[in-house]
Amino acid sequence: MSAPTNTAYDQTHNFASVNGIALHYLLQGDPANPTLVLVNMASHNLTCWEVVLEPLLSHFQVLRFDLRGTGKSGWGAEDEFNFAQYTDDLAALLAHLHISAAFVVGVAYGARSAAQFALRHPYKVSGLGLFDVALTPPVNQGDQGALGAEAMQMLKAAGFEPPERQKYWRFYENRDAALNCHTAHLREGDTNALLHQITTPTLVACGRQDMNLAAAKEIAGLISGAQFEAMEMTGHGSIFYRPDLFAELVIGFKPALDFSR
């Protein structure tokens, strides 16, 4: 997909050779701070996090990356587009960077990957953040547009100005690979039954105007000791409605991280 010049997507960062592909990533911030991994939502690349990056870098070393098949990352065989593979790619990337454990935070589709990472690589997780999350087989998302519009109206009435959404947040190199990446949920079972295995400190948050709200509350109840937060005036894809609140919740959870992992 061609992209106009002079956007954040035009900047190529670093590549790590993991599991047969070149994974595109960017690591920023003070390495003395705990590492925060941000896992992209569906159809987005690592540039989408720019709306929350500045406050997070004051507290964390931040790792962003493009899932295989998205952004500037490579892709493999069609049967490798699954959450287990995505999390193994991340584990290999952390090993490449000599990072023993990280606070792994995902939004929406990225939260599915983050949850799987905690299940498959529990000793590499100092904390887990699941935003706007549902983990059952595909749920009806038909009202997300209307709920999002409602949240936007509420924000504007309250004097908040959500960030302008940028087309380049969703750019990619190969259309078929990007589609394969973001249809893994169609081939995934119900992860809820496994959530009792997660022992890492966990934050679950979801917008009040998000169809996943009930599912997110259920998930928080299935993970021992998980903290749940409802994000007011917020639709699906919370960083695009309340980046300030997203950053506040992530930073506020820092004292709960388990640095012994």
Give the SSE map.
Blueprint: E1 14-18, E2 21-28, E3 35-39, H1 53-57, E4 61-65, H2 83-96, E5 102-107, H3 109-120, E6 125-131, H4 144-157, H5 175-181, E7 202-207, H6 213-222, E8 227-231, H7 243-252
Parallel strand pairs: 3-4, 3-5, 5-6, 6-7, 7-8
Antiparallel strand pairs: 1-2, 2-4
Percent in strands = 15-25%
Q: Tally the helices: what do you get?
A: 7
Number of strands: 8
Structural class: alpha/beta
H/E series:
EEEHEHEHEHHEHEH
C-alpha-based Rg, rounded: 17 Å
The largest beta-sheet arranges its strands as 1-2-4-3-5-6-7-8
- Cα distance spanning the termini: 40 Å
Description:
With 261 residues, the chain is an alpha/beta fold. The chain has one domain (8-256): 3-Layer(aba) Sandwich (Rossmann fold), CATH 3.40.50.1820. The chain is 28% helix and 18% strand. The chain has 7 helices and 8 strands. Strands 1-2-4-3-5-6-7-8 form an 8-stranded mixed sheet, sandwiched between helices. The termini are far apart.
Index terms:
261 residues, alpha/beta, Rossmann fold, 8-stranded mixed β-sheet
In short:
This protein is α/β, with parallel strands linked by helices and 261 residues long. The chain is 28% helix and 18% strand. The longest helix is centred in the middle third of the chain and has 14 residues, at 83-96.
